[in-house]
Amino acid sequence: MKDSNWDLDLRDGLRGESIVADILGADTIEVKTDRRWRHTGNLYIETECYYKSSDSWELSGISVSKATHWAFVLEDSVLIIPTYRLREAIHDHPRPITCNIPPNPSRGHLVTPALLMELIRLARERDEIALEEQYADKYIDPAELRLPD
After folding, report:
1. Beta strands in 69-133 (DSSP E)
2. With left for phi above 0 and alpha for psi between -120 and 50, is residue 89 left, alpha or beta?
3. Residue 56 falls inside a structural domain
4. What is the mean pLDDT for each group of 10 consecutive residues in the chain (149 residues)?
């Protein structure tokens, strides 16, 4: 009888360390400090900005970002999310808003940190199910798993 999940805890701990190292070593992280999130519960993700010089709306923010990750400074904590996941969030759960703060009004979407965390959880489940389905019809003979003596 096994008393501990030490080996699973170790594996998950090592995986977590690897993820943090990858993030901290990422080529580009776009860092955002949303001063209103504490009062609204929302994070603002800019997609367009109005430029007086050209008198037009132009893509900006996440629409043109080349960063691999976005980091949101939330008081004394930081939420870091891959850019593609953030793009999925505003595509799959759009909450468009216009921010009319001079001198450059902008357009974007609102997301909550809770929604981002839920989308990460659901994506993980989706990935695990896809992996299970990929190997569901493949029989592996237990004898093939034996190590040579």
Report:
1. 69-74, 77-82, 96-99, 106-111
2. alpha
3. yes
4. 58 71 77 89 95 92 93 89 92 94 90 92 80 66 55
Q: Residue 23 and residue 54: Cα distance in Å, rounded? A: 37
Number of domains into which the chain is organized = 1
Note the pTM of the prediction, 2 decimals.
0.72
Three-class SS of residue 108? Answer: strand
For residue 85, give the amino acid letter. R
Q: Is 19 a domain residue?
A: no
Angstrom distance (rounded) from CA 146 to CA 63: 51
**Euclidean distance between CA atoms 108 and 45, whole angstroms:** 5
Domain hosting 96: range is 42-68+83-136
Angle at which helices 83-92 and 113-135 cross, to 10°: 100
CA atoms 23, 67, 69, 35: torsion sign: positive
For residue 143, being part of any structural domain is answered with: no
The reply to whether 24 falls in a domain is no
